[in-house]
Amino acid sequence: MTAVRVRDVEIAYEQHRYRTPIKFGGVAFDRATLLNVRLTCETEDGRRAVGFGSMPLGNVWSFPSRTLTYDQTLQAMRRLAERIQRIYADCSEAGHPIELTSALEQDCFAAAEAVSREERLSEPIPRLCTLVTASPFDAALHDAFGKVHGLNCYATYGPNFLPGDLGRFLGPEFTGETLDRYLLRQPVPRLPLYHLVGALDPLDANDLTQPVGDGLPETLAEWIERDGLTHLKIKLNGDDLNWDVERVLRVDRVATAVQVRRGVSQWYYSLDFNERCRDVGYLLEFLARIRLSAPGAFDRTQYIEQPTARDLQTQASNSMHAAARLKPVVIDESLIDLESLKLARELGYTGAALKACKGQTQSLLMAAAIQKYGMFRCVQDLTCPGASLIHSAGLAAHVPGVAAIEANARQYMPQANRPWEERYPTLFRVVYGTVETGVLTGRGLSAVD
User: Fold this and answer.
1) What values do phi and psi take at 393, rounded to 5?
2) Residue 313 Cα to chain centre, angstroms
3) Alpha-carbon distance 236 to 245, whole Å?
4) Residues 210-226: pLDDT tens digits?
5) With 150 labelled, which of 139, 211, 329, 357 sits at a CA distance of 20 to 30 A?
6) CATH topology of domain 190-436
7) CA pair distance 200, 26, nearest whole angstrom
């Protein structure tokens, strides 16, 4: 028998300041709280292992609010983490991590409702926020499972470890299929890195009014030169068409100047509106203007991320079919379960972003569904440092067809990466615009052995 039971769960927090602020959804913030989880599991024959999971509590992203402060939403997530700790610790069932986490998911959502009532929150904790808070517990369970069997996690998703088929989790259309058919047993050797160009980030020396002075690059031009970047993720406002168009044109001018100097002829952009476009018409006008003003920038755009509001039930009038004929349009914040993925497809979305912060279990199941439906796929992070970056990179390296990896913490809180850099220097150091993911073959999630 390969099934395990949870025997102990411990949590701890890390606080980090960003070297420069990030703007999300119109809000600038400059700090992060990491939730670290250590979980002990035990097999039926008494073997034990301790797994480790870590994730930023991205409250600005997962719990945006017009009435609650940053500290209030963060406190709600911490209270929820305490509840989820007890849920996992009290679980008496034995099983595979995907079985156990799937069985506990509704308990986590119920815990979020209880915390919302007890804290008298003016807005309830969203389901996305609950997934983020629960994700390090799920990661620690997967990590422990791999370690207790002496294997990398991605060697434990076949029928020898996970009984039955995907129909148990994803419905009848997946009957007879197993999860391992949708995953690579070995990680791809290298992946390009998508560098974040934040809305507040200086592009060249003319923008640099307050240098950080810590020895790291200060402008986009300097980052491209140092790391040999070929993939740029451009954050846009979504509520100022002229600004958004000009921002892409300026990024393209700066990037072109540097790439021509470097002798590079091919590079790519992704465009992230963070749900701020009022409607699909805004996006279509934006794309038309980019295509007219800078055809090269239009051609270099690989995909567009979450242009309109995350609540797809209210977005039926914002069909993405016309936009998706121009470029892949990807859901991010909207993706919280299989139903949301199916609804997105009906509305014209042609891709989906996987994120470790939504849980290893959900990410793997959604990776299977996304591939079955023939959708564009990418893996993004939540400014994940250290173990959470290793987790995210492992996901990107084992899902077939992922275009690139994100690693924003190297820009905004590099100090949180330093304890991990010696173990995987080629993952935490960008060379020729890529990072080495083939090294992620250790036991569990590869973060802590």
Assistant:
1) -65, -35
2) 23
3) 9
4) 899 999 999 999 999 99
5) 357
6) TIM Barrel (3.20.20)
7) 11
Specify the 3-state DSSP secondary structure of 415. Answer: helix
Q: Rounded to the nearest 5 degrees, what angle is found at the Cα of 61, between the Cα atoms of 384 and 324?
A: 95
CA dihedral (176, 181, 183, 189) in degrees, to 10, reads 180
The pTM score is 0.97
> In terms of DSSP bridges, do strands 434-436 and 190-197 run parallel, antiparallel, or are they unpaired?
antiparallel
What lies within 8 Å, CB to CB, of 252 at 6+ separation is: 269, 294, 296, 297, 300
Token representation of residue 169: 């989790």
Per residue in 116-139, pLDDT (tens digit) is 999 999 999 999 999 999 999 999
Distances in whole angstroms, Cα of residue 356 to Cα of each of 160, 252, 394:
24, 30, 9
The H or E element containing residue 38 is strand 27-43
User: What is the number of residues in the chain?
Assistant: 449
Do β-strands 301-305 and 329-331 pair in parallel, antiparallel, or remain unpaired?
Answer: parallel
d(CA 162, CA 179): 8
CA 47 to chain CA mean position, Å? 32
User: Which of the four pLDDT bands, split at 50, 70 and 90, describes residue 449?
Assistant: low
For the purposes of burial, counting CB atoms within 10 Å of the CB of 226, is it exposed (0-12), middle (13-18) or buried (19 or more)? Answer: exposed
For the beta carbon of residue 129, count every other beta carbon within 10 angstroms.
Answer: 22
pLDDT tens-digit map of 164-187? 999 999 999 999 999 999 999 999
**CATH 3.30.390.10 domain range(s) in the chain:** 4-163
Closest CA relative to residue 406, chosen from 328, 324, 303, 294: 303
Helix (H) / strand (E) containing 252: helix 241-262
Give the C-alpha separation, 352 to 206, whole Å.
Answer: 36
Class in CATH terms, 4-163: alpha beta
Residue 354 main-chain phi, psi, to 5 deg:
-90, 145
Return d(Cα 79, Cα 74) in angstroms, integer. 9
Task: Using alpha carbons, list the distances in angstroms from residue 252 to 47, 108, 299.
Answer: 55, 44, 11
What are the strands of the beta sheet with 48-56, ordered from one edge?
Answer: 4-24, 27-43, 48-56
> Rounded to whole angstroms, how far apart are CA atoms 132 and 116?
16
Domain with CATH 3.20.20.120 in the chain: 190-436
Query: CB within 8 A of 326, min separation 6: which ones?
Result: 287
